[in-house]
User: Fold this.
Amino acid sequence: MVAFPATMFASIAMIIQNFPQTFRFDGLLPQAVLDFLNNFFGTVGNATMNVSSVFVVFGIAYTLGKKLKCNPLYAGAIALASFFMLLPFQVVKDVTYMPLPKLGAQGMFVGILTAFIATEIFAFLENKDITIKMPEQIPQGIANSFTSILPGAVTLMVFNIIRYIFTFTKWGNAFDCLFTILQRPLTNLGSSLPATIIAVILAQLLWWFGVHGQAVVNSVMDPIWNTLALENYAAYSAGALIPHIVCSTFMGIFPLIGGNGMTLGIILVALIIARSVRLKSTMKMVVAPAFFNISEPVTF
Assistant:
């Protein structure tokens, strides 16, 4: 959710940028107009979609930090620094670069694991009061910074050791390792038809027992489906074929029309042919959210 405003803006920018090519009237426009669209909107993705793992790391760490009753702001910052610690920086002609793909889809699973592990370490040390104590005369903001120095330093040292260990492996870094042995198999599984059907059936089955099925299933599947959507975005931006049918966008458009249980159809039917005044009144209230895949009002 932390990434949602940025990624929503990027989605709109991408639609505007590629509108002429999508509907095949780009040949009717002056080249200057096409160049303007590409130059003006082309870099939006690099600051949003293509660095989505950065939002994920900070968002998870900040939220988990509040739950673990440590300083959530510093927990987010330390988790983010730990994530950058694992990055395989590239040096070209004495200039150091961050590998952009690993800040996006390729780094999603590393980001999730880093956020959880780094925050757990940081919170454990801070809650155990393993900190630098400052006199009461020191302003609270400065004192809080010193309180987080030791927990933050230990956390970063742990991830620096992890980074160093990976340099002796055949992958060379944690990103390529997890992408090869964890993320790629999971995304291949998550994009398959059987896995999609199982996920949808399980969500509806949980609803039948009174549990918010989509929330439970999405807690497992969302990282996979979002990663697939980001890979589609990267391919589309590069002018390549879209690699995945199933992704977060597909799930929102097809299996969840109107939200959980595909309730938009029954809402529209009830509005048209229902004789019950109570039912018609209820459907008038829930039809607007249903068009945005919000089905909780009618489901409950």
User: Anything to note?
Assistant: The mean pLDDT is 88. Strands lie at 90-92, 95-97. The first strand starts at residue 90 and ends at 92.
